[in-house]
Amino acid sequence: MADALGVTAVHKQVAPQGLWRVVSPWLGPAPSERMGQTGALFAPPWPDIAIATGRLSIPYLRRLRKLAGPKTFTVVLQDPKTGLGTADLIWVPEHDRLRGANVVTTLTSAHSFPPSRFAALRATVPAEIAALPQPRVTVVLGGTGGGYAFSETDIARLASALRALAHTGTSFLITPSRRTPPALLAAVDAATADAPRLLWRGEGKNPYPEFLAHADALIVTADSVNMTGEACATGRPVYVFFPSEGSPKFQRFHAALQKAGATRPLPQAPQTLEAWRYELPDAAATIAAEIERRWLARRSL
Questions:
Q1: Do 84 and 177 lie in a common domain?
Q2: Cβ-Cβ contacts under 8 Å for 238 (sequence gap 6 or more)
Q3: In terms of pLDDT, which residue wins out, 19 or 301?
Q4: How confident is the model at residue 271 (pLDDT cuts 50, 70, 90)?
Q5: Based on the domain organization, do 176 and 120 belong to the same domain?
Q6: b/e per residue, 133-153, with b = 16+ CB within 10 A?
Q7: pTM for this structure?
Q8: Alpha helices, DSSP H only, in 104-261?
Q9: Are both 179 and 135 inside the same structural domain?
Q10: Quick one: 91 and 121 in the same domain?
Q11: What percent of the chain has pLDDT over 70?
């Protein structure tokens, strides 16, 4: 769609500090950047479509919208916090509260794992993964976020569940994130040490795409909407581990996924892996189609 419609991404990577970062969505672009070094930052020819994401991009999109008017169809990904009039179309995940005539929602966030990518990844099984016995369980570890905190008790609960699975003959594909606390990774390492596994420690190529594609089931910590959504894009059973606390927004997200039949809470002492089927809409394709539909309607006026 981007090539066909001439989408221009508006995401100015500036690094203001302090108060500017907090209030930037309500401000205009910094005076030194309003025209750019060449004097053409906000000048015709105007793009057909402009897409902004992130707090710091909002002043630039608002400025562009004011100058270009209806010649540019503007889109914001995530709640801009500056009202529905910020853009022609605003996308938010369903668990956000923002609603309006120009708001489109999806259950999960857009990600880079459409069905075609999984088909390509599954066409060949890497030798080191093929050597692991089935069932293979991918474990995706996050960290503090979304209102969740990994207490010592939480870490012990996850380790206990993984140890129980290891005793059933399960093999593991384990990947941490940059937010994973060392204590959490150490506990998962110890709990699965005697099981067939691959554990990525942040060195060399990240095997995350292959770990997703070749899992028979997945375990994901509840603190990341993106990680959970990407796991659900596999169509394979996804167990979610819930640390302590958790914000109402994340609780709504996980409740919706369970209602859709995509996820289930990770049992405390799983003895077997259940199998279930589901299919979630591709959020990226949904968003792109809605942008195209509304942009074409604008052009026909």
A1: no
A2: 217, 218, 219, 220, 228, 231, 232, 257, 262, 263, 264
A3: 301
A4: confident
A5: yes
A6: eebbbbbbbbbebbbbebeee
A7: 0.86
A8: 115-122, 127-130, 152-166, 182-192, 208-213, 225-232, 248-259
A9: yes
A10: no
A11: 86
